[in-house]
Each structure stands twice: as C-alpha cells, then as structure tokens.
C-alpha cells in the first residue's frame, strides 16, 4: 500500500513538473527564424485547427499585413520590422497559449578570409568577416590542412573572428589550405584559401619610434626605434627597416632602407621645419613589409637668439655739487692790503660801516638838541 501511494505521488509530481516546464516555455517564448522577404506562418502551440485565437506583438495588437487561420498567424513578405515577441491568446477567456520570438534574417554568403604570420616562425593567424550582414547569429567553422593532415585551431580570446595555428615545421614546402564555413539558422556558405608559408610572413610595425634634434646641427634629426615585440626571435630571424620622412610643407616622402639597424641620422632636413617620420619592418629573406609605424613629429635644432640690451636706456644717478665753483659764482673775499694789514685790524664789512654811521648820527642829534635847550633857557 505504501509503495502504491509513493508511486502515485511520483506520477503527480512528474505531471506538475511537466506542466510547469510547459508554462515556463510559453512565458519565455520559442525562437523562430525566417528569411527576409518570405511569407511566415506561426502556430499557436498545439491548438486544434478550429480554435479561435488572437495575437499580439510586443504587447500590442498585430497591425502588420497578416491573415488568421484558426490558431495560425500568417505574415507576408516579412522584413526587419516584423522582428518581435508574438503572443497568442485563446478565446473567449483570453488565456495565453504560446509565445514566439521572431527573427528575420538572410542566409550567410561566402565569407572573406586572410591569413598572416606576425610571429614567424611560431605560427600564423587567420581572420575573416562577412561581406553582407545576416541580421541573425552566425557562427564560423575553420579547418586547416597541411601535408594531408588537419592542424589544431585555437580561437582568439579577444577577436571573435580570428583563430591561431602553429607551424608544424619551419621552411615547409607544402602549402596550407584553410576552409571557412559560415553557418546560421537559414543556411551556410564556405570559402577556401591556400598559401605557402613564405607568402604570409608580415611583421607588425616597429615600436617606440623617436626623433630627436641634434644640438648645433640645424639640418639633422636622430631617429631610433625598436623591433616589434610580437617578433619572437630577432637574432635568428633578423628584420630590415624602411624609413620615410618629409617636412609638413611638402607632400613627397624621402626613403632610406636599413639592414639590421634600429637608428638613423637624417642629414638633409630643412632647417627650422617640422618633419613627420615613420618606419616599416620586414623579414630579411621572406614575406612582405609591415604597415607603417605610428607617425612622430620633430623639428631640427634651432639656435636660440642672443639677448641684446637696448642702448637707449639711461642710468639715473644722484646729482652731487661739484667742489669746483663755476666762473660765475661769487668768490670768497680776500684780506685787504694797506693799513688794516699793518695793524692786523679785522676787515670792515659794509654792515659794520652802516652801524658806525648810524651811531655817529645819533650822537650828533643829541648834541644839537642840548644846544637848543641851552639857547632857550637864556
């Protein structure tokens, strides 16, 4: 009896789980991919053909050109504007029975692929892109063949449309064949490319390019750089370099090719003119030139002008009286010559003479007044 009850409980629980899963599926929606420009039919769950339903897209009534046949919604010549979340409801109570996420797109076309080795002799990478958009998720499958065997392919962690392959051997005479297939829900398309090892070697541009003026040389610039950090074995696989430079006032470049050197002195620069300078790199034996490095700007040494002091400036100093009197200045009186000199009498000044005369006049006045008084008393 206990086993029977347990079995019944398990059956009921399973039914509940299935019903819950179906309900979740209806709420989450199922994805339907359709080709752009085609006619599309969407089925409302598993309802019978005579069921009466209504449809909404993104929560509103369907307004695009459509046709209803029982539980089916038919759209004609769909485009990107038909993308959306479609929900169907069974009448008359309006219970939601199904949800469909409609994506409109196109099948992929043959992708474009290029392969390059910037880490020679370690390996190479291939990158690709679609020539036309598909509007729906598209994946890519890569297969690399060399000497009748498949090579391991590693997807790039940063670039989604890139993969890396290690060279199974160096200086191989066997070509490499890469097959790339683009796949989405509406179809697939493939492209194939073949190449020899030596034809895909292309270093990255040189790094840390600098240009410095040379003191006291108005027509020289010293340029230096470093080999690309991605080049793994510069000693056994040396690089040569190509330098180009021009003044900003001209469009024509001047070029210098250098072997196994990471510096160069430009000796024919225009004095005082700003220059733009770039460097490229290449394996000394095989491959092609890298892209140009980031441009740097520099101007040859310019002599600083000498500071000149103006001759019109006047130094103002304190004026002092000259100890030598001028010819028009009054001279100091000298001692008189004659009697006064014999008795060593002091010199008589005009003021002293005036005072003596006044005293004498005063005395004479008093004498005259006394005489008058005596005459009157008689």
User: Which structural class fits the helix and strand makeup?
Assistant: alpha+beta
Q: Spell out the helices and strands N to C.
A: HEEEEEEEEEEEEEEEEEEEEEEEHH
Mean pLDDT: 82
- Please report which band the strand proportion falls in: under 5%, 5-15%, 15-25%, 25-35%, 35-45% or over 45%: 35-45%
**Assembly of the depicted chains:** single chain
Uncertain segments of ≥5 residues (pLDDT<50)?
Answer: 15-26, 313-352
Strand order of the largest sheet: 1-8-7-3-4
Cα gyration radius (Å)? 56 Å
Major sheet size, sense and barrel closure:
5 strands, mixed
> What separation lies between the terminal Cα atoms?
197 Å
Shape: flat
Q: Care to count the β-strands? A: 23
Helix count, DSSP H or I runs of 4 or more residues: 3
Name the helicity range.
Answer: 10-25%
């Amino acid at each position: 009896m206990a086993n029977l009850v347990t079995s019944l409980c398990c059956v009921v629980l399973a039914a509940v789980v299935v019903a819950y899963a179906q309900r979740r599926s209806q709420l989450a929606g199922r994805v339907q991919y359709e080709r752009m420009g085609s006619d599309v039919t969407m089925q409302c769950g598993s309802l019978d053909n005579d069921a009466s339903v209504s449809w909404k897209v993104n929560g509103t009534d369907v307004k695009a050109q459509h046709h209803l046949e029982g539980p089916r919604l038919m759209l004609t010549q769909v485009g990107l504007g038909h993308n959306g979340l479609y929900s169907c409801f069974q009448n008359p109570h309006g219970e939601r029975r199904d949800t469909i996420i409609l994506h409109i797109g196109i099948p992929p076309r043959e992708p474009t692929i290029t392969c390059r080795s910037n880490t020679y002799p370690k390996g190479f990478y291939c990158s690709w892109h679609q020539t036309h958009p598909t509007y729906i998720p598209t994946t890519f499958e890569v297969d690399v063949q060399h000497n009748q065997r498949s090579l391991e392919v590693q997807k790039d962690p940063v670039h989604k449309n890139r993969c890396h392959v290690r060279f199974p051997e160096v200086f191989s005479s066997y070509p490499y064949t890469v097959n790339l297939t683009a796949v989405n829900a509406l179809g697939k398309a493939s492209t194939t490319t073949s190449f020899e090892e030596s034809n895909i070697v292309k270093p990255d541009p040189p790094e840390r390019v600098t240009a410095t003026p040379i003191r006291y040389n108005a027509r020289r610039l010293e340029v230096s750089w470093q080999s690309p950090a991605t080049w793994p074995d510069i000693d056994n696989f040396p690089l040569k370099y190509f330098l180009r430079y021009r003044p900003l006032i001209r469009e024509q470049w001047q070029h210098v090719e250098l072997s196994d050197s990471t510096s160069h002195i430009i000796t024919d620069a225009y004095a005082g003119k700003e220059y733009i300078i770039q460097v490229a790199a290449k394996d000394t034996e095989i491959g092609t030139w890298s892209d140009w490095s980031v441009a740097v700007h520099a101007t040859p040494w310019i002599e600083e002008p000498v500071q000149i002091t103006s001759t019109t400036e006047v130094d103002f100093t304190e004026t002092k009286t000259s100890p030598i009197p001028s010819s028009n200045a009054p001279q100091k009186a000298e001692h008189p010559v004659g009697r006064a000199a014999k008795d060593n009498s002091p010199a008589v000044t005009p003021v002293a003479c005036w005072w003596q005369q006044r005293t004498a006049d005063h005395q004479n006045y008093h004498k005259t007044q006394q005489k008058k008084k005596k005459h009157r008393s008689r």
